[in-house]
Amino acid sequence: GVLLMETKPQVLASILAALVTEQQTMDLQQILQIFLAYLPSRMGVAGTAASGVLQGFLERVLTSTKHPDTSHPPTKEALQILMRSYLSDLRVNNKGNESNSFPGKRPFFAYMLPPFTSPEHPSLIKLEWLICSGWLSSECLAELTQYVKEVLPSCLSLLILAQPSAGLPLLIDQCPQAIPQYTKDRLKNEADLKQMISLLEVKVENDTKGIYEPILKERAHPDTHFS
């Protein structure tokens, strides 16, 4: 098992996920308990390999249905562990599990925000997708926001996605060029649009460079529609 974990981590992740989602010979809680007992005693290569297997396992289990039962305690714990796994990858610049088992697709506006890396970090894209999925609890999002502020302040997209009400002023202040695309990607109703217009109006009053007025005129256009 240890050899397979280090040499074929995603094969092992697939096998473990199948035990839960297909054969149902074990449940999510049992696998989590095994990993959580194993990981603290493992350092270096062994610890990294085990973390990669756990990440791949969670990705497969959580996407085995269209929408996991986020009220189920083991599922809530799994989502929190996966979120922390991605944050850890970003902190140490570990590429994590680069398999395609998780449908990581970032909002278009995120390409206009720091950190600007090419190619984009796989765990950043997956974490953005996870936030947008709506699966993370408010407690998880609060933990993520606090961690990013303290440890990963350059990951602006995570702050904006995880805390829209506080993130919108951040977007307007630091990345006004992304506002039009953000409107298309994330604004869902008239209340959201009114908040943005109010914030832009304040900016226009003190804008000596003429950056915000064209954006405000475009956002206030009566033909704006919501999907």
Could you write a compact summary of the structure shown?
The chain has a domain of 66 residues. The protein is mostly helical. This is MMS19 nucleotide excision repair protein.
Description of the molecule:
By secondary structure, this protein is an all-alpha fold. It has a domain at 1-66. The chain has helices at residues 2-7, 9-21, 28-38, 44-62, 73-92, 122-133, 138-151, 156-162, 164-174, 179-186, 190-205, 212-219. Helix 8 (156-162) packs antiparallel against helix 9. The longest helix has 20 residues, at 73-92. The mean pLDDT is 86. This is MMS19 nucleotide excision repair protein.
Ranges with pLDDT <50 over ≥5 residues? none
Residue share in helices?
55-70%
Distance between the termini: 48 Å
Instruction: Give me the secondary-structure category.
Output: mainly alpha
The overall average pLDDT, rounded, is 86
Helix-strand string: HHHHHHHHHHHH
Largest sheet: none
Q: Radius of gyration from the CA trace?
A: 20 Å
User: What is the overall number of helices?
Assistant: 12
Estimate the strand proportion: under 5%
Number of strands: 0
Shape: elongated
